[in-house]
Structures
1.
Amino acid sequence: MPHVPTEHTLLKVGSEGGCIELLGLETDGTWRFRLPPQEAVIHDLLGEDNPLAAREPAWVDSWEAALALLDAYPWQALYPLAVHPQFQKLIYQAVSRYHGSHHEHCEEWDRVMQADTH
């Protein structure tokens, strides 16, 4: 029976207004990335009958393109909820570039990344 790839949550950040989640799909050692629709935002801004509500987001094939998807939101300033162990270094580098090496979120990011490795 062939192996069916499974989507993984690579990054999940949140605030009182909701969550942003980066999903990844690994096939033969190659990752693809997407952001699921922000259902609550689309519904609140555009209404439930808007065609964007039913649109499936496109997959991107590079980490740089995945960061560009994330950067449409202020994700670095949100509360980290989960980080996939394989992407910890890349995500931490992106957060550090945004905030600098000494910022108040460092402890929260460290805590989440250590919890995700156990």
2.
Amino acid sequence: METIQQWDEALFIFLNGFHSDFLDPIMYTLTQTYPWIPLYVFLIYLIWKTYGKQGWWVLLAVGLSILLADQFTSALMKPFFERLRPCHDVLINGMIHNYGKCGGMYGFASSHAANSFAIGTLMNLSLAVKYPKIKWLFLWAVFFSYTRIYLGVHYPGDVIVGGLIGVLAAYLSYKLFFTISKKITKQ
């Protein structure tokens, strides 16, 4: 486990090193929610266009997947594992680039990664048949997650595990809501 943690720290220092004064405020802005509101509105439009009135089932599944992913990472994992964020770790603090605020004390696993991968996965499960190019949302999730490493607030392992949790939360939510909606619409 110690070797994995050392690899994670070394990869973090490498990836965190790709910063510039010009990109810092841009990456900080892009790790927030509000710049992505047009994307979310566009996804809601695609849901409505694909499912019509039944699209609210997809929106409920999105809500549940984000709730599951966020609460599992924030309320359960972070206090249980108590892994310091890189920006709070005094052993590497002088070697890293931290821009903006550091966030809470613990960072394992990344809620940003969990939430973005939950959205990407659920949109792919729901929309890829009609819109196969929607797979680009996974690139968005990777980029959104990388901003956390860039800003010095998460290790790559935090992001990878958070992403996996998001995928799982989305899959479970999708299965639950689409099973329920099929049963209800048959009645």
